[in-house]
Fold these 2 entries.
Entry 1:
Amino acid sequence: MIPHNKPTLGIEEEQAALRVIRSGWVAQGREVEAFENEFCEFIGLPAGYAVAVANGTSALFMALWALQARGKRVAFPVYTCSSLRHAVAMIGAIEQLVDVSPGTPNIDLQALSQCGSDIAIVPHMFGLPVCLSNLKDIEIVEDCAQALGASVNGTAVGLQGKIGIFSFYATKVITSGGQGGMVISKDKALIDTIRDYREFDYRQDQNKRFNFQMTDLQAAIGRAQLRKLPILLSKRVEIFKRYIQAGLKLLDTTSEFNISISPIRYRAIFTTNNFCNTNIIDFLESMGVKAIIPIEQWELLGEYNLFPNALKLAQESISLPIYPLLTDEELEYIVSKLNILL
Ligand SMILES: *Cc1c(COP(=O)(O)O)cnc(C)c1O
């Protein structure tokens, strides 16, 4: 079976892990600090403006904590990872669910600006970035868990809003050994608040905190992955192009008329337009190819009849294998099976 996703782990990651194991220091330390600063450099921030954490969900929690979201109205799309809802609930904020805009996996900005929320979490789904320049009077947390390397008008995602968060889960663009996350902000005060939260132990203030630290073992693997990121991204672009060349209509919000948005190819999503994506997934599975429904109907974060665009997407989308370790032979095999459907 050709898997749907696979992390690109090799000798560099092995050596990084070995280095940390042999050093005798595996908890949060110098590797974490180096990972943060290399991440800043990649994003285009000065050193010190990123905080590495345990995972993307804790990154979201800390972003909301820094924005003092407790009791405030926090908007986010129904079509996204459940971790947004977890973070909003755990911080004690009031959730406001918003549909996606038609034909896209991203939040409907018009609906968002009309719902009167204090804060919004805006995910750049599937690597397709949302331009946030027209959103006023609302504090934005950009969820870049699926969009590391994407940009809008030359600005990296994560820098448009108040705070940006990233995930390094096993199947994201890069992984820090299975779990990991990062919080960034141009606002030093917010970053300092988040960094202070993370130092949970040995504190005289006795304030209550979770332990959201990343380990040096994770950070070392993350650093090796970050070095590979340009290659990982271009490999994904090649696979995406091959699917397009084969005649598939892949979900994309960019076009020659919209050159300000620079996506990454985190997902190759193909839509069926006939509400029966499960049949196609079953067919591909019988051929030895694992495709998935990226977000199923039951995974939508709200009563789905109220969110028709998200519902349509859940019913029509199929996510195909797109990862750097997919071989040319595997790719051609998948394309040959898809040709039967086209
Ligand atoms: C993966 C993901 C998260 C959560 O990150 P974890 O590291 O798994 O906690 C949040 N938002 C989006 C859009 C994601 O894809």
Entry 2:
Amino acid sequence: MRYAGKDDHLVGSDMLPPGQRKAHGWPVSHYGPVPRFRPERWNLKVFGATASGTEHVWSFEEFAALPRTTVVADLHCASGTSTTGHEWFGLPATALLELAPPAPQATHVMAWAEYGYNANLRLADFASPRTLLATHHGGQHLTAEHGFPVRLVVPHLYSWKGPKWLRAIEYMTADRRGFWEERGHHNIADPWKEQRYSYQEED
Ligand SMILES: Nc1nc2c(c(=O)[nH]1)N[C@H]1C(S)=C(S)[C@@H](COP(=O)(O)O)O[C@H]1N2
Ligand SMILES: [Mo]
């Protein structure tokens, strides 16, 4: 589906951010091994600066019963390849924020995956109406390589900001850098501004 207009880059389209080229197919890209899914041990947690002061935990079954929606969006890897037109289905971050509200002082979130991979986001980026905790792609469950059972999709940021094998959202009252942000990558990661590296953060 194509949408014309100035918000064209906000939906899945053939338009790519500067310096990106289209990948062939949908290659798998991540650091480290693919974790094994153990349904009885799996849960999704929201912790840190919650409004209630307590953490929220969903089992796999409970999580699967939460409201879900479809978002069409691209993945832009900061190494320069993009894959486009992904039809994601999952829990909107806005719904998670209602189910597990952050404390008023919360300004950032840390998205945590298996094995400690993490990515920090401004609360406003996490709260985008297009941010999704995706469980499905193209009408099918995510594959293990692409993040089963849940991955975070933040369409307006480079895709390292979207952990596959997501396990927790931590609300933070101050910013803290995640895995790639600590290793020379940009703290915000807007692909339309080519915010790839931390040395670009000066201004
Ligand atoms: N848990 C985890 N999630 C991750 C990564 C990772 O190393 N570990 N890599 C990120 C990066 S850099 C990219 S480009 C995308 C790639 O997702 P894909 O393999 O589905 O295209 O996953 C992101 N999510
Ligand atoms: Mo990437």
